[in-house]
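Data availability (excerpt). The following record was deposited with the supplementary files.
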Amino acid sequence: DYAYFRSTQRTRSTLYNLNFSVTGDLVDLPAGALAVAAGYEYRREAARFTPDERLREGDLSAGIAGLNEPIGGASRANEIYAEFAAPLAVEAPWAHVLELTAAARWSDYA
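Predicted structure:
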């Protein structure tokens, strides 16, 4: 003999994403253009799990410990970045290309 029941569990997840970026040449230098890239990104993620009502009430056991209570959560991120590439020498006798690069990123997670 065995016991059979039909259960309905719901899971919902959402993602919101806003991204803005710019790239281009800022000024001309003797060895080429100073290239820049900068941007901002916002992300928000959320999830929620709702088990079957019979599992929540404890009437039935599905053999899965810990999945009888609703659970959910969310996180967000704000990020700003900037990158620079400055050519110092091109086709020099001692180097094909010599370039100085710099990058920075700030992130805030909650």
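Summary of structural features: The chain has a mean pLDDT of 88.
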